Amino acid sequence: MTDVMVYWKDYDRQSNGSEQPLHWHSNSPALGDLVSRDRLWVVTSGKRLNQVEERAGFLVAVWVVEDVIDNPGDDPAFPKHKYGYRIIGDETESIHLDEPVNVDHVIRSDRFDDTVAVGRFLRGPRRLSDQRLRQLLSAAGPHLAQKWLVRSRGPTAVVEEDT
Description:
Elements lengths: L2 E5 L15 E4 L2 H4 L6 E7 L11 E14 L14 E5 L5 E8 L1 H4 L10 H4 L4 E2 L2 H24 L10
Parallel strand pairs: 1-3
Antiparallel strand pairs: 1-7, 2-5, 3-4, 4-5, 4-6
């Protein structure tokens, strides 16, 4: 399984990304090579989320890839000549976090201080190493774990918290 992080510049918190079809358009071979069950870790800026840490990166979703196809060119916002691939997310397995998680400390390298916006250093897709993946899972903690548990049990599942 391959895990790739992408920066969603135009993320819309009002729809939480979940109102839109789970399509990601790209010309990147790294995304064109994805297969079913691979994952896209979707990050946006604090500015898009009206956070105090405007330049920080926040995890907003984890999409499970259903398929990767050649871009059919049916969306004028993503012309086929600029975006060769369409990554289709699995709508039942993909997760949109209700509360975005600040993962800036995980994704920002030492080369970029916190005055540099996340979109300036996370321009293209990044394959995640096992270590970086563990760090993201740890940072997302219970937010992501609970979403995954509810998804894997179905829509009627109830997750009880320890008291």
